[in-house]
């Protein structure tokens, strides 16, 4: 499995060509699950101030030829990509999981920073779905800040969570180096904490470079069910690749302490 750190802008043809190049490189390394960042097709917003979203990403319907092209490129690989979806005149920040056989699952980002609300409508659910590689759930960047998001997917049987992000450095307290940035620390913290508290495998992809006022962190990674980082990139583009048996690793993590089984919901009200 692999998580992508890369930049994707407004030009759909360039985005698709980059997807095809990365899929080919991943296939040469026997990758079976490949997770791209949020806004893979058409890029993310250029500002989160809420006053000026700038040029919005192109909106694609669920049967868009661009998605069919990604599916054809994927062939037997399970691939997750993000884009701005239009459905019944409403726009969502959406992640879709597909193979050459078609769409396996779809997630519309639920939790929105204020600046997104001019461009996207919030989704309203978290649900895992079955794939040739087992049961998977998806989140879109800010969703992972909220523990309930990943917990709902794990409770729905997901052993692996793909988190697609366009996660920028802090806009209010920018550090001179990305590695020192507050948002950089939180991005890594959430990846490891969500994997460990749910005892799932976590595949986290992110945009790199800049768009408008936003400078994206990169830091794609694969995290094991004990919260240990198995592979990662840094700020530049790259592929975080790890090989593991998801079912076996999750079972091993839950051998003595099984967080889902040992929950006490009656005490949480």
Automatic annotation (TrEMBL):
PANTHER family, A to Z: CARBON-NITROGEN FAMILY, PUTATIVE (AFU_ORTHOLOGUE AFUA_5G02350)-RELATED, NITRILASE C965.09-RELATED
This protein's UniProt keywords: Hydrolase
InterPro entries attached to this UniProt entry: Aliph_Amidase/BUP (IPR050345), C-N_Hydrolase (IPR003010), C-N_Hydrolase_sf (IPR036526)
Lineage, uppermost ranks: Bacteria, Bacillati, Actinomycetota, Actinomycetes, Geodermatophilales
Naturally occurring in which organism (per UniProt): Geodermatophilus nigrescens
Domain CN hydrolase: 1-246
MF terms in GO: hydrolase activity, acting on carbon-nitrogen (but not peptide) bonds, in linear amides
Pfam families named in the record: CN_hydrolase
PROSITE patterns per the UniProt record, alphabetical: CN_HYDROLASE (PS50263)
Superkingdom as given in the UniProt entry: Bacteria
UniProt protein name: Predicted amidohydrolase
